[in-house]
Design goal:
By secondary structure, this protein is mostly helical. 64% of the residues lie in helices and 2% in strands. It has seven helices and two strands. Strand 1 (108-109) and strand 2 (113-114) form a beta hairpin. The chain is globular, with a radius of gyration of 18 Å.
């Protein structure tokens, strides 16, 4: 339960220290604060986000030290990937070449698509980090039940679908040739070497 609480505190803390980037996200720009965001606020936040906490409170489960250490490592990898990838994109959109991404000036493909940092690795690595965060929250419950894993599983399905919609939107926005060139650089949609 302590690990679960720390994970949520860090997740929220890192959100609120850079809250301004939220206005530049897919939910706001493409969906116009649409159905998916409202559904998430009404269903995910009160029910699925708290599911693991309720499960931990109702079930005594002593996790091994190795399990907790691996879960902590995965959480910090996921949180860093999720937040940093979103912040890289936001900072470039807001400040342009006045920022550094991984200690160097941002690189662009034909002056339109960011290929620095995480955006040169994958097209939706931010979703990968987010799913990994939720998976580690579920890992705080152990392996007694599949129920706590509904959150990361449902988000994997939701964000995979969103990644497909975003790819279609970007291909239309940037044109087939430029988008295909970008896909050759950022080869992975969400999971490096797998998807």
């Amino acid at each position: 339960m302590v690990t679960y609480q720390i994970f949520w505190w860090l997740y929220l803390f890192t959100h609120y220290i850079r809250e301004d980037f939220m206005l530049w996200t897919f939910d706001i720009i493409e969906d116009h604060f649409g159905y998916m965001l409202v559904f998430g606020d009404l269903v995910y936040v009160p029910f699925l986000y708290s599911l693991c906490g309720w499960f931990i409170a109702d079930n005594q489960n002593n996790l091994s030290g190795i399990w907790i250490i691996i879960t902590l490592i995965l959480f910090f990898i996921g949180l860093y990937t999720f937040r940093e990838s979103n912040w890289q994109k936001f900072d470039y959109k807001k400040y342009g070449n006045q920022i550094n991404i991984w200690f160097k000036k941002p690189q662009l493909l034909e002056k339109k698509l960011l290929i620095s940092g995480f955006w040169g690795i994958g097209r939706h690595i931010n979703y990968t980090g987010e799913i990994l965060v939720y998976l580690t929250i579920a890992l705080c419950t152990g392996t007694q039940s599949i129920i706590p894993y509904f959150l990361p599983l449902s988000l994997f399905i939701l964000l995979s679908q969103r990644a497909s919609r975003d790819d279609i939107r970007c291909k239309k926005k940037y044109g087939d040739q430029l988008w295909n060139k970008y896909c050759n650089i950022a080869k992975f949609r969400m999971i490096p070497f797998i998807y």
